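re: ur question from yesterday

yeah so i grabbed the chain u mentioned. its 227 aa long if i counted rite. heres the sequnce exactly as i have it in my notes:
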Amino acid sequence: MSQIANLATILSLLCGFSSLILSSGRNFVLSAYAVLLAVILDGIDGQLALKNKVSSAFGKELDSLVDVVSFGVAPSLLGYLFIYDNLHFLSVAALFIYIMCAVVRLARYNIITKEEKRYYFSGLPTTVSGGILVSYILACIEKDRFSPLLFVLLVLLLAYLMVSRARYLNLDGIKQVLGFSLKPAILSLIIALGIAFYLKKPGLGLLSVFLIYLIFSPFVVKRLDNN
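ran it thru and got these structure tokens back, copy pasting raw so excuse formatting
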């Protein structure tokens, strides 16, 4: 079963690699969706490992290395090429800081004991950070409106949150909040995203979901600690 979890991780890497190629061809929409598919696969491989109790040091290191590509480098290249004609130097500097913080975030995660991260992550997960970045680009394409300065500020905010001590729910924490049942939440999420796709606003819908997690998760973690 560990090989199945590792296969999901490799498929996530394939998505990140595909995103890089698509960005190079300036196919920004498909590039963003490739990263979002990597987000889903990253969740699947973690759940496979936990459910079958086959997590290993190798799988953990493999997952982190893949995350650097799929949620660090791939969103950064997409963002760089998308913003290329605007604030060139600032965008390069901001995106380098973003990649650096993603690498630091993943390195720090690998040395934290399981007990320390039972219900939460310390720092914004790179998966969510990459998802926010590409969802924002999708939303800008849908609205045909883009603020280069806002983009740079968003990149820097995500970089800071990844290496901050802010605490964000992991899947065990979400299960704890929902009473150990993710099915109603997943169903609600699918319905909400289905409506967003029907309205031809998938980027805005996805961005809204990620931002809800970004904003409210630290408050929920604090409430868990107080209970």
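noticed a couple things. The chain has one domain: 2-167. also The first helix runs from residue 2 to 24.
anyway ttyl
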